[in-house]
Amino acid sequence: MVFSGIAKIRKRILPLLAVLLLSAVPAAGSEAIREATEILERWTSFHWGRDCLVWIVHYPEELVDPWVESEAARGGMSEGEKEEYRRAFVSELRISETEPFLVTIYAFGPRPLDFGGFASAISLVNKNGDKAAPLSYERKFDQPVSGIVQGLVFFPKQTDKEFSVAMRRLGVVEEQLFSFRRDAGGNTPVASVPEVREKEVVVVELPPAPRKEPPKPKPVKEPEPQQVLPPPPVPARPIELAELQPQPAPEPVRPDPPEEPKKNVIFISRDKTLELFIGHWIEGNTEAMYGLLSSATKTLLNEEEFRRQVASTGLRVSLRDGYKVQWLDGDRAKVVTAQKMLVFRTLRSKSLSMVKEDKIWKVTW
Description:
Layout: H1 2-23, H2 30-42, E1 44-49, E2 52-58, H3 64-75, H4 79-93, E3 98-107, E4 122-126, E5 131-132, E6 136-137, E7 147-156, E8 163-168, E9 175-179, H5 238-243, H6 270-283, H7 286-291, H8 295-300, H9 303-313, H10 316-321, E10 323-327, E11 332-341, E12 344-357, E13 360-364
Antiparallel strand pairs: 1-2, 2-3, 3-7, 4-5, 4-8, 6-7, 8-9, 10-11, 11-12, 12-13
Helix pairs in contact: 2-3, 3-4
């Protein structure tokens, strides 16, 4: 009995251990996001000013591959969607043609922080001390800053990556240098990740608990049923007897001519049709999307051409995270979604038109 109980416990514990061990396997894309995080660590710098905190992050070209791979793994992107996301990522950040920086300013003083013209307050400094003015930046930095203000700043492309960013008018020193320091090996030290040790699993084998015999129920003596006399018969009334006489056969009923089956047509509203279209878009079901298109769109695009155009937008993953429909004049709508670009999101949209064909709403792509 003891050995059979131990065998049963083993059969129950071993599958549980297998599940625990499998759950410890790192998720897909974990190496890519680890590499991307290390790159961001190397290219992040911050300084305190007077009643403010400023931190700057540089987006180098080496960041593109690991970041795209990690986002593709997390979002379940197809190869086509991953390439579209890569193109959008590089295009939005202008990584190929500039040196992009994300500048975040947290001003918490009693008065707003005024740079007196942001273009003259920030510059890129190379290792020789030469300075380069920004090519472009978000104009909100030209306004007095209160609270948290964040935006992109683009500098000219540099062949030598040993550069810093200088900012003036932070209230402590005349010019504060934001350096991306490197160690002797050419890498910036990053926070070390503790080594993950394998957890030791201890299996405790316990003898089975002694079985308890359930108590035997006491026999219950059922009471003897009392004899109930049947009620006396009720004499039938004459009218009831007359109903028992044979009745003449009824005339045959002619069947009605069969009705033609009506076609069940469900009319869906304009808004519901667009929501259905976007739902198929999120699912990646371009065949169902094509079925909701207007005749004019189907004349211009066959199903394969439409599928390629949908994939080229690169919006499916961001639509899955959330979207908003803005209705415009004349049954036109703009579908707005936020596409993630590292620590910020950029708004992207697609304009669609709704038309009625035979009382049914259709989408014009």
